[in-house]
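DATA SHEET
Item: assembly model
Revision: 1
Owner: S.N.
Input lines:
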Amino acid sequence: MTNIHNNHLSSFSRRDALALAGAASFVFASAHLGLSSAFAGYSHRQQALNIRLPDQLASQNPIIEGKLPASLRGTYYKNGPALRQGFSRSYKHWFDGDGFIQAFRFNGSNMQHHGQFVHTEKYNAENDAGDYFFDTFSHNWVDSAVARSSDEINVANTNIVHHGDRLMALWEAGSAWQINQENLDSIAKVKWHDDLATAPFSAHPHIDDDGSLWNFGQVPWSQKMILYHINPDGRLNKYNLLDMPNTSMIHDFAITKNFLILLLPPLTWELDRAKNNASFLNAHQWHEDRPVEILIVDKNDLSVLRRHHIPTAFHFHIGSAFEADDGTIELDLCHYKNADIVFNLHLNKGEKNLALPPMNPHHNRVTLSPNRNDGKVTRIHNYANEFPRTASVADGHRSQHSWSIGIDTETGLFRYALGVNLETGKVDQYDYGADCLLEEHIFVADNDRPTMNGIIPGWLIGLHLDLLDGKTKLAVLDAYDLVAGPQAMVTLPYGLPPGLHGNFVSAA
Amino acid sequence: MKQYLRFRTRFSFRLTLASAALLFATQSLSAAELVIHITNKKDVNGVAFIAIIPESEADKFPDGKAFLTKTIAMQSNEKTKFIVKDISPGTYTANGFLDLNGNEKLDFNLVGAPTEPYGFSRDARGLFGPPSFADAAFTIKDDGTRNRQTIKLF
């Protein structure tokens, strides 16, 4: 399996393959004109993110190399922004596109793939109009009308989570969309309570030991945050409204045995900017001089117990979190020096500030003592990585292992699958090669093998776009021996734009 | 029954045309006529509550004493209209909401966003709240111009 990718590393065979495949001319040009690798890398991402998709896609018999594990049974659901075929307008930023849901269904020997856009109100209205016209995360059209509600521009494009027998496509500023688990049709928006209709329900909810789900939603214009606790059966248990002056951009949070932990980076939404027709993204301002505020919330009544401050930084994702018996909280996260990254995830090179230094995250640990209001930040390892995941069924526990995707620091593209021992900082890595563009990789437990010494056996599965043949591929790796390379590789008959988050639902 | 209803509709429509023509012909009006079109843009049935608010109440907008209110049962995606006769020349707004649960008011969620379909004349929209009176305002003239406004509920 490994050989397939190592072949790509030889420049001779790479050029041959390019010529034979008639691959996109700019890739060819950049290889021959000796453009900098960073520029070539950027072109790769630009090429990938500009793939346009029809409403639905399906493949019954994709090519499988190697052998899919017999005990890998269930569905990997995945969500991500995608551009639409047939529309002439385009978007500027990775996070703008409409949510495209995919299901990779494994039966122990084969895999089937199908995908469909979420039919949100926005999707249907633009479908009728024949092109994009609503404002999005990063972009306001010149002639666009002000959105009448956040759900009018809800793209449901960030995550897909199964809970309480509901499959939910999640965005950050609007309602969850319930998706049919079999055919991926959009069923309806989830209304947890009359008071919570159309209220924001974020894209990284966390599931607890008892099967209940915790989440937050931010309402910048009313400077509030809603906290949700949903019962295991999918019905609302309780909610609370927190005052949130200086509302910051928050993508993820963490849970521990007794607490919810909210890290607020100093990237704040400014009403004045929004009133001057700034897009949602551009209404945000980075405050270099302000620390990260951390709220420790009591799970019992959803009130703020205490606040910590750590030095200024930005993050999207928290990997794992737990609390020790003495109340000390530890969490790991992918930490950026500042928020430049979020302003530079553009689809087109004219939009990107190429003068910026690489915006690589560091995998850090934050330790919060209950007796102090600061926190300690330490580096876990020196690889640049993102999209951290753990093996735990429920969140809020100490994890020995964390999986993520590693960044080629020359090109800024995701190239490596990474397994990190959080206790020792040791990294196990598989290099897909410079011509592969990785997406999130997730741990899937092998339910046929018992947990030994706290180690849950399983695989790491994840997608990548092979830029040489333009196809999206799914690799299955031994989660504890990534360096050995994929056990199986499934090649879809099409290329898909890199998506965001997904989760595996085991077959009953 | 259906035919009868259709007949009645036609009949009343003719009557309206006739009376409008008559009024126009006499040139004696100090008041005009306004046709309000309402579009339910959603896949839900409800009762549309429509209010026409004069400029004198602009400082209380979108509340304030209405010149006229009207309720109309509407099916999903239905279009309807009604005629306001004898409206004095001046500046007004028209707005409405679709009551889905029979409580006769526009419902909001806990962060203050409407949770039932609503709309303002001129499709006016506010940023993080209702539009201003000026954004939704239209002028009624008595010079014989057709006064027509549309409220889209969605």
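QC remark: Helices of chain B lie at 2-26, 133-136.
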